[in-house]
Amino acid sequence: MERHQNLKSRLPLYCSFGGLQLSKEPHFDDHQMITVCCCCGTFLTKKLQAFPGDMDHSADASGLLEGSDIGSQKERVVTEEEWLQKWEMGNIGFHKEQRHPLLQKYLDVLLNGRSGLRIFFPLCGKAVEMKWLADMGHTVVGVEVSEQAVKEFFSDHSLPYCEEPVPEISGAKMFQSTSGNISLYCCSIYDLSSSIVGKFDGVWDRGALVAVNPCDRQRYASLMISLVEKNSSYLLVTVSYDPNKHKGPPFYVPESEIKSLFGNCCEIRCLEKVDDFSERHRQWGLDYFLEVLYLLKFVA
Ligand code: SAH
After folding, report:
1. CB of 249 shorter than 6 A to ligand 1
2. H-helix or E-strand spanning residue 149
3. Is there a smaller number of Cβ atoms within 10 Å at the N or the C end of the chain?
4. 31 shares its domain with 11
5. 212 and 269 within one domain
6. Per-10-residue mean pLDDT for the chain, 300 residues long?
7. 228 and 141 share a domain?
8. How far apart are the first and last CA of the chain?
9. Domain count, the chain
10. In this structure, are 257 and 233 located in the same domain?
11. In this predicted model, what pLDDT tens digit does every residue of 175-185 receive, in sequence order?
12. Residue located nearest, by CA, to atom 13 of ligand 1
């Protein structure tokens, strides 16, 4: 906190109207100074500085952003049928046409100097980064409950593919690019195990843990832990907003929960928090929305 106080005078915050507008004492989060503009109510955040490898001040990061209470989201359940409907209706605001800036920025952290990795995309949708990583020479495996999403992935990228049943999972299919380096399992992630898909050197988890029903998080985390090799790197993107104002998904996942889900098995580092607030989030009734990137490092 003292460190933050020292930085305070050097980090003024401006609202979009240009004035220095601190309506109240700034709240200091791990990496940011956060406050609200008194003229327009804008939620202002300012990155303080990166503290690589230094994430253990969450005890003083309580309050606005790091509350561990997820409110009524705890009980919320989105069924597989509802996810299929979202795809059918084209209600897929979560899908991004551009590569995720945080994956581009932290790709080296994920790869850690290695090539030819097996990289897992849980709850993959039709994430464009799968093609990007495959083009770099990695082997990509995804799992997605919507067959429409899987087929759209291949057609969006004009990639020929073949499909085959997965003998171990009733009703499941595996769609594989003809070149063999992208395999997408069409089934529930909970049907997978390392005996079916093997283990992975890297994971890109964006729109995945945050899309899992809160009551299933423990099951999801245990499964993910069972699917990673020793020495693997797992980039996890969560979102932070006031869970009393939006029912999700994406669901708010507090830092304390990341620690309790994964902390026994890996080192956890918060790499970055970015302001991702947009009109979409304003329409949800929110006044701030952050993306939070963690590195989960599974050691030998
Ligand atoms: N990660 C993707 C998609 C995020 S939305 C991206 O970043 O764009 C979450 C996705 O998970 C949806 O496409 C939904 O159809 C899929 N999904 C939801 N529950 C699932 C489950 N149990 N198993 C596999 N996929 C699931």
Report:
1. no
2. helix 147-156
3. C
4. yes
5. yes
6. 34 38 42 43 44 36 57 92 98 97 98 97 98 98 98 98 98 98 98 98 98 98 98 97 95 96 96 96 96 94
7. yes
8. 34
9. 2
10. yes
11. 999 999 999 99
12. 125
Same domain, 184 and 203: yes
C-alpha of residue 181 to centroid of ligand 1, in Å? 20
**pTM of the prediction?**
0.82
Q: Are 261 and 218 in contact (CB under 8 A)?
A: yes
- In this structure, what token pair is assigned to residue 202? 């890297």
pLDDT tens digits, 197-228? 999 999 999 999 999 999 999 999 999 999 99
Whether residue 249 sits in one domain with residue 134: yes
Distance CA 244, CA 239 (A): 14
Residues 6+ apart with CB under 8 A from 73: 214, 243, 247, 248, 251, 252
Boundary residue ending a domain (18, 37, 63): 63
82 CA to centre of ligand 1 in angstroms: 11
Shared-domain flag, residues 76 and 168: yes
- The residue type found at 141 is V
Q: Print the domain residue range for 93.
A: 72-297
Question: What's the gap in Å between 40 CA and the centre of ligand 1?
Answer: 36
Ligand 1 contacts CB of residue 290 (under 6 A): no
The residue among 44, 63, 82 that closes a domain is 63
